[in-house]
Structure formats: structure tokens, C-alpha cells
Amino acid sequence: MTDFAGLRAVVTGGASGIGLAAASLLASRGAQVVVFDLKPDVPEPLSGIAADVSDDNSVRDAVAAAALQLGGIDIVVNNAGIGAQGNVTANDDDEWHRVLDVNVVGIARVTRAALPHLRKSDAAAIVNTCSIAATAGLPNRALYSASKGAVLALTMAMAADHVREGIRVNCVNPGTADTPWVGRLLDVAADPAAERAALEARQPMGRLVSADEVAQAIAYLASPLSGSTTGTAVAVDGGMQNLRIPAAR
Ligand SMILES: NC(=O)c1ccc[n+]([C@@H]2O[C@H](COP(=O)([O-])OP(=O)(O)OC[C@H]3O[C@@H](n4cnc5c(N)ncnc54)[C@H](O)[C@@H]3O)[C@@H](O)[C@H]2O)c1
Question: What is the mean pLDDT of residues 75-96?
């Protein structure tokens, strides 16, 4: 499939996990892809630019460099994100600001720097990586859930603001996905095997979501073939949000 032939994409947090899978899939379908990451070591044909989405100057420089390198920008995948654990008492103000700064304000920074380029595109699309934490109450994820709830609302607001400019904005809501992020989470668990089994059991399919499966949804939303799709959230969560099934006996 070459639906992305001639299109130029930026993927934030694209050096690992879901971002790397999405960047690789877009490239395999014909896009030229630049990855923004803190450590942008990416395999060819991807190219990497060092950028910190929590630093406005860094983002502006990276967007300018990407637009120069690619000759424009048609697609932005706002995927960079960090986690936080615990209930509402678990994190101090600095940590609240840090996580919201990366997960929410980061999307605003990258998008506002990229908008002048997107406005020149005939196939402009933004896809934000949100989470099931935006739509379901998960224990011990208060700060992270607040950040992803904001990503969901921001996605809808941006979709409304830019629909008349021909810029589509959507998000994906992954369940727990098998990425280095979850690997790090399991590494610090008291019993990693039991913790992994619990995460798998929480999803009706009984397994974690793969990064490639999330990438497929990102590509669907970013593709010019999905030209009528804007202001939507696509769940890729093994049924976790919407299904109510009896526990396995
Ligand atoms: N893994 C999951 O279970 C899961 C579930 C739902 C949503 N998500 C979301 O998916 C996205 C990607 O997660 P992942 O699991 O692939 O994680 P990951 O840790 O494997 O990859 C995240 C990437 O983002 C980069 N990054 C972090 N902070 C950055 C910053 N300030 N500037 C630029 N890059 C930065 C990291 O360097 C890393 O390469 C995140 O937004 C996360 O919230 C993940």
C-alpha cells in the first residue's frame, strides 16, 4: 500500500514503542518520516532530529529543520509521552507540571509550530496518542489519566478549530501496549510476572496490545484515504473500554 507516497510526516517520541512502529509503518507505505525524540536513534529510512517536546525552542528548531529537510509537513503524530503512577496524593506539584508539560503542552507546542506547514498541505492530518486512561477510571493513574483526558479534549477542540482549514485531527486510545514503557513498569514491580498477568487479564482479549496494532490505527487516521474522519478517538485496547464479559472460570 502506498497511500502515503509523496507525504511528509513528523512523529514525536518516534524512537521507541508505538512511535517507532507508527513511523516505520508510515515509511513503509510511502511517507518520508522524521522522528523527534530525546535520543533520536532510528533505523533507515527514518531520520531523527533531537527534540524535547517540553522545550518550545527545541520544538520550533526541530519543526523548522524537519520542514526544510522534507520540503514541508503534511502529517504530525503527537505521540511523545511519559507515565506517572499513584493516586491523586502520590505526586508533588513539580511532577504534575512535568507530566502535563510533556503529555499535553507538548502537543500544543509541536502543533502550533507545525500548523503553518500543515495549512499548505492538501492532505493535512494530526494524530495524537491518547490512552484508555482518558476514558476509563484506572487505579493509581491519577496524574497520567488527567494528562490523557486533556489530550482527548484537546484533540476534539483542535479538530473543531481546524476542520475548515482542511486539517483533520484524531487520536488513538491504546490499552496496555507491549512497549519498552511497559517493560520498565514491570521491571520495578514486586512480582513482574504476576503484574504482567494482571495487565493481560484486564484486557478482554487476555493479552497486551502490540505497538504495531496501535500503529495501524495511527496510519488509518493519518491516511488521505480517511479524508472524512476527524474529531474521533479510535480505541485499540483489546476490548477493555467497551466490553463487559464474565471473568474466566
Ligand atoms: N505502552 C502503553 O501501554 C501505552 C498505553 C496507552 C498510551 N500510551 C501512550 O503511547 C505513547 C508512546 O508510549 P510507548 O509505550 O511507545 O512509550 P516508550 O517509552 O516506548 O516511547 C516513548 C518515546 O517518547 C520519547 N519522549 C519522552 N519524553 C519526550 C520528550 N520530552 N520529548 C521528546 N520525546 C520524548 C521517549 O524518548 C521515547 O522514545 C505515549 O504518549 C503513551 O502515553 C502507551
Answer: 98
Of the residues 111, 144, 155, 222, which is catalytic? Answer: 144
Q: Is the pLDDT of residue 208 over 90?
A: yes
Helix (H, G, I), strand (E, B) or coil at 241: coil
Task: Find, among 39, 36, 44, 46, the residue nearest to 13 by Cα.
Answer: 36
C-alpha cell at 191: 512480582
Q: How many residues comprise the chain?
A: 249
Active site residue 220: no
Residue range 25-43, pLDDT digits in tens = 999 999 999 999 999 999 9
Single out the residue of 109, 127, 142 nearest to residue 224, CA to CA: 127
Computed from CA positions of residues 28, 29, 34, 35, in that sequence, does the dihedral angle turn out positive or negative? negative
- Ligand 1 neighbours by CB, cut-off 6 Å: 12-13, 15-19, 36-38, 51-54, 79-82, 102, 129, 131, 174, 176-177, 179-182
The percentage of residues in the chain with a pLDDT greater than 90, rounded to a whole number, is: 96
Q: Measure CA of the first residue to CA of the last residue in the chain; give whole Å.
A: 42
State the pTM of this model: 0.98
Domains and CATH numbers, the chain: 8-174+209-235 (3.40.50.720)
